[in-house]
């Protein structure tokens, strides 16, 4: 079955960096777009970034452009999110998510990893 | 403020029917992009319950149904059960932002 396991979350000071990883299994990773979606404490879901199956296309929400970088290693079935210049408002649970297909939705989610940006 | 608008809460008694609405604009739902729905129990990851406006993934009971018209979409749940208590989010794609967008979520309470 499909499994997405995030890692790399933790507590970090404002202005510092953190790199999230997502290990995927149970499907042909190189054939699917992948996403990062976050949820601040007590808030709703927010799309952060998306990467195409072959990494040729990436998109970000405005608030993380220039600070976050989504990437993937199809040889290792792993998705990444490099987060630089972190701000307190980036505090959230970050979910790795698998694209469901051409209709732009998520059909599988990881369990999430908590990122806390605090001095 | 979310790009898609949902009522913060809705409630219903066991066995009843409830609907959750989602309103967008001409750059997302109104542009013809599909609407999808997710259910999230607090402390857990979201799960897909409706995709492509009205299709159900395998394993989702037919008590859940979705529809779309113009710039809005709806999720209907019939035969309400206690286990349906959760937060429900609608989602679409926005051509102006070039990324997926969510509603703010609707908390369903089963009385």
Description:
The complex is a heterodimer of chains A (119) and B (111). Chain A has no helices and eleven strands. Chain A has strands at residues 3-7, 10-12, 18-25, 34-39, 45-51, 58-60, 68-73, 78-83, 92-99, 106-109, 113-117. In chain A, strands 2, 4, 5, 6, 9, 10 and 11 form a seven-stranded mixed beta sheet that branches. In chain A, strands 1-3-8-7 form a four-stranded antiparallel beta sheet, with no helix packed on it. In chain A, a hairpin with a 5-residue loop joins β4 and β5 (45-51). Helix content of chain B is 0%, strand content 44%. In chain B, strands 1, 3, 4, 7, 8 and 9 form a six-stranded mixed beta sheet that branches. A three-stranded antiparallel beta sheet of chain B has the order 2-6-5, with no helix packed on it. Chain B is globular and about 40 Å long. Chains A and B meet through β5 and β10 of A and β3, β7 and β8 of B.
